[in-house]
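Now for my pick.
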Amino acid sequence: MFIIVDRKYSWEPGLQIEPIINGTSLGQFSSKTFKNVGQLLKKGENTIEFRTTAMQKTPEDNAMIISIGPAKVDAGGDSIQMDRVLWSYGNDSDWKYIKSDEKFVYKMNPNALESKVIAKLMIDGLQCETSLGHGDIVLEAKYDYSWWSPKTASVYVNGQPLSSVMNTNHTMVINSMLRPGINEIKVICRGVDNSLAEDNELTFTVGKCKFNPSNDSYSMTPIDSRKVSDGLIRNDDNEFVSKENPNLDYY
């Protein structure tokens, strides 16, 4: 597993980022880099913190983007190709750029120069994130919009966990997790701590995959579809809680 850090645009960013995985800092970055984080991530739940520091002055709007997933590094170790992005984060989602003042302002505290966004993310069932085949039963996770979401989801098929979903659309082949008769798919949604990013709802769809030889592509015939993230609301402290039970931080 690798992490890729890159600029949103080519010019100097006004927001630097420091990823912290299960308590270990990878350093602060303002330009493109990548690191192997396989030793830091563990099977099961992981705590990932994205710590952002704003520059005092920045003439242009720019930020940093993080992608985490399995990847291949070339023989010289100079370039990387990520096979698929498990999780992503853009650190301008919680900041607003004020052009007239040439600076970023943190949405949660306009006087702050630093923010800490924390996500609880599961790694498991990576074998399900594989190439599609005709007749496969797939589980698709899809956000309504392209912008960064303050909500994540952990998925269980008949009690077996899959990797969490955060800011990337996923299609997972779940044939091996299904059994004859009734099957249960459980999705637990959580808010990302300290994030005021605009809401972006998440829909899960179960369907059967079909190969279309006319255009050499796959399509999915839906079996069931549920919008799962609208069960979370913000309380008076801007924290996500369950709409049904405000004492719970998940839905």
